[in-house]
Design goal:
This is HDOD domain-containing protein. This protein has 388 residues and is α/β, with parallel strands linked by helices. The protein contains 19 helices and 8 strands. An 8-stranded mixed β-barrel has the order 1-2-3-4-5-6-7-8.
Length: 388
């Protein structure tokens, strides 16, 4: 992927959008505070962004439809881009006509927030977006509109349920980190077996020992066989045995996937766990940054592991210190997970909270490298979410 010169442009964070089935369906980008022509050209001129996040759509929150010139629209394919504007812009003269022209050009449009007093919703605009921190419409109030409707900044399970009752079907925010979102994860026994498998891999145990442990866990076996038979590996024959699965994956890849399978659903009928793609996202970005620094293969593996394990306390409902006590990880990985200390800890904090230019400068990361690592990490997380 090409490194963009983003030095003079604001950093843009990609916010995952999930549906009610806990599947990522889009990425939301807030461009309201940006110089839109320059930023859209930088981000969407090269093919990297849309290629990296395929097949997901991008929801662009913009301040004013007048910012979208015909030339800029050539960079924003309507089949991949959904445009979102503050509903307040309807009060400006000529805005309704500009929005109608975008609809005629094939764009899907959302209006963000409540309508200005005295103004009716244009008939062609049937999707809404709301900041869930500010206001949630009453229950069932959105059902008359076709949608999809997006609630963003949904940060806890109670607000998630209120948004769903109102008729929202897309959700973005920190609610996966809050717990109690109705997800069913694996039981503790299955997770302990995965941790035991990781310990065996770390000591180069014989493949027969790995197979014996896999045979004890039907759910884990299901996920492993589903994984190796997925499009991610594109094997020509169906994999039906544990020995074949281990051979196809290889020990290094098996170790990485097991770290993420900790977050997988407990059975084929359960909802996906939204912590899974978030853990993959952190793992992928930390690995890419380590690779950019010239880290060797073992260092990249530890960076990946740091991101993958960073949500175990949320997943297991246990203090991180208690979890780490049984894992025997290197000291610098433990410090990163416990206190966000050291290089790995500093970078993990940037992945969690978002980065600005000053924070990246303190961490010794240039903005182009950060953007590229973010794109590659999202590509990896999307593939993980579709294959696990």
């Amino acid at each position: 992927m090409a490194l963009l010169d983003l030095t003079t442009l604001p950093l843009v964070r990609l916010h995952p959008v999930a549906n009610g089935y806990n599947e990522w369906v889009a990425l939301r980008m807030d461009l309201t505070a940006a110089a839109v022509p320059e930023l859209v050209t930088a981000l969407f001129g090269p093919p990297d962004l849309l290629a990296a996040v395929a097949p997901l759509d991008c929801v662009l929150l913009l301040a004013d439809p007048a910012q979208l010139t015909p030339q800029l629209c050539t960079l924003l394919p309507p089949n991949r881009i959904m445009l979102c504007f503050a509903a307040a812009v309807l009060a400006q003269e000529g805005t309704a006509q500009r929005l109608a022209a975008l609809v005629d050009a094939g764009y899907r449009l959302m209006l963000d927030g409540p309508l200005p007093p005295g103004l009716a919703r244009p008939a062609a605009l049937r999707a809404v977006s709301f900041d869930a921190r500010a206001i949630v419409p009453p229950a069932l109030s959105l059902l008359a509109l076709s949608g999809p409707h997006l609630a963003h900044h949904v940060d806890d399970a109670e607000r998630l349920r209120a948004c769903a009752r109102a008729g929202f079907t897309w959700f973005s925010g920190d609610y996966p980190l809050a717990g109690d979102t109705g997800e069913r994860g694996q039981d503790g026994t299955s997770r302990r077996r995965i941790l035991s498998l990781l310990a065996l891999l770390a000591t180069d145990a014989d493949s027969r020992e790995l197979e014996l442990l896999l045979k004890q866990d039907p759910a884990l076996s299901y996920h492993l066989l589903k994984l190796v038979n997925s499009a991610a590996f594109a094997v020509n024959t169906t994999i039906t045995s544990y020995a074949q699965a281990i051979a196809v994956l290889g020990r290094r890849q098996l170790q990485r996937w097991l770290q993420l399978l900790l977050y997988a659903r407990s059975d084929a009928d359960g909802l996906p766990n939204l912590l899974l793609p978030l853990a993959a996202l952190r793992a992928g970005q930390l690995e890419m940054l380590c690779k950019r620094d010239g880290g060797n293969r073992d260092e990249q593996d530890l960076a990946y592991m740091t991101g993958a394990f960073s949500l175990l306390d949320r997943l297991l409902g246990m203090p991180m210190a208690e979890i780490l006590a049984g894992l025997r990880l290197p000291d610098h990985v433990g410090s990163a997970l416990l206190a966000r200390a050291g290089v790995l800890g500093e970078r993990l904090l940037l992945c969690e909270c978002g980065a600005d230019a000053a924070a990246l400068a303190r961490a010794g990361i240039d903005t182009a490298t950060w953007w590229d690592s973010q794109l590659q990490a999202h590509h990896w997380a999307i593939q993980v979410g579709r294959n696990v």
